[in-house]
Amino acid sequence: MKHDSHAKPLYLEDIAPGDEFRSAEHRIDAAQIIEYARQFDPQPFHIDEDAAQDTFFRGLAASGWHTASITMRLLIDSLPFARGVIGAGGEIWWPRPTRPGDVLHVRSTVLEITPSRSKPDQALVKVENLTVNQEGEVCQKLIANLLVFRRPD
User: CB burial class (10 A; 0-12, 13-18, 19+) of residue 39?
Assistant: First the structure.
């Protein structure tokens, strides 16, 4: 089932494996990349457009953590889980750099749901989140284990 990103809060009973979600879009520019990197990941390929030309990236590239932060912001609205998007671990990959001018959105798919044995009001929900640019290229893949709660009685 595809879910509307402006839907009411979702509980465990409202989702199933295979459910899909799509976020809004975020346009990233050089100023955002440099500002974020100066504070959190000050490497030449993230903070200096000229120096970046002579690096592995052959040009300015966003920090992977910046891409992850944008992804999180987009997930807040597109995964409207009641009580929040609460992470409990996962795996992350950056198959291609995020560049100035990229317009990112996130496509999320529920992979599996594992009810808690000790806490019957909650479950771990494994979600694949693909952060995709305007060309449909995946800039980040995040498999996240999220804590989702049952609807209160």
Answer: exposed
In terms of CATH, what superfamily is 2-149? Hotdog Thioesterase (3.10.129.10)
Q: What is the pLDDT along the chain (153 residues), one digit of tens a residue?
A: 666 555 689 999 999 999 999 999 999 999 999 999 999 999 999 999 999 999 999 999 999 999 999 999 999 999 999 999 999 999 999 999 999 999 999 999 999 999 999 999 999 999 999 999 999 999 999 999 999 999 998
Please name the residues in contact with 134: beta carbons below 8 A apart, sequence gap of 6 or more.
102, 103
Distance (Å, rounded) from C-alpha 30 to C-alpha 25? 17
Q: What are the backbone dihedrals phi and psi of residue 151, each rounded to the nearest 5 degrees, phi first?
A: -65, 135
pTM value is 0.94
Contact by Cβ (8 Å): 58, 3: no
- Residue 75 burial by CB count (10 A; 0-12/13-18/19+): exposed, middle or buried? buried
Sorted by where each begins, the domain ranges of the chain are: 2-149
